[in-house]
Amino acid sequence: MMNPAEFANIANAEQDFWWYRGMRNIMFGLLDPVAQGRRVHRALEAGCGTGHFAQALGSRYGWPMVPLDLGWEGLAFGRQMGIQRLLQADICSIPCSTASFDAVISMDVIVHLPRGEEDRPMREFARVLKPGGLFVIRVSALDLLRSHHSQFAQERQRFTRSRLLHLVAAHGIRPLRCTYANSLLLPVALAKFRIWEPLRGQAPSSGVEPVPGWLDALLHAPLAIESAMLKRGLNLPIGQSLILIGEKA
After folding, report:
1. Among 123, 130, 162, 219, which has the minimal tally of Cβ within 10 Å of its Cβ?
2. What is the pTM of this model?
3. Could you tell me the mean pLDDT of each successive run of 10 residues in the chain, 249 residues long?
4. How many domains does the chain have?
5. CA-to-CA distance for 69 and 79, rounded, in angstroms?
């Protein structure tokens, strides 16, 4: 489970912070062609945090969303924002019927389980998803990029493309698209995580903190470039995040 202290940081940042804006646009760019013409009568976001992204998905695609999270702290922020149908439950034991969703979305959630336990939520995602249903997952990528923020948020594992593809295939998910993202900032991330943070020797802390407007714009620009590249069908070969879109066989 994610560090409960991080929910307040997320709630304050997910609307305007450069990373959230950029990664939302990247995700929408990947989803738009897949969602077009697809009938989704009920969609689950498994590990929704505050429910903000589930609300964004519902607004963009008209999908009736069921946002689910184990942490009451995140759901409390969602209720304050007026988000509907919030469900408190464990992604490893989803209290919903088999084949009851046309789409299942999970953003940066299974990374909070210890390595070796990722099959538990994947089994549940596949169980509640209808045959032919849409599956969308984003995970943190590459162990080399583990940071103070990763430690603070209680991230337990990161993925490579091959390991994520193997995981979803083992549960009957056919990949439609799999790409790394947040790639152009990789040199900055490596310098920060492997040099600057060890030199400072400070305790792990959240990376979701306000920055000056000029810096926010500067950091957002590479994500905007990636969004345009991904919309054209290019898959990025390395990056800080990994996104897979697939269908249940």
Report:
1. 162
2. 0.95
3. 81 91 98 95 97 96 97 91 91 98 98 97 98 98 93 94 98 98 96 89 83 95 98 97 97
4. 1
5. 13
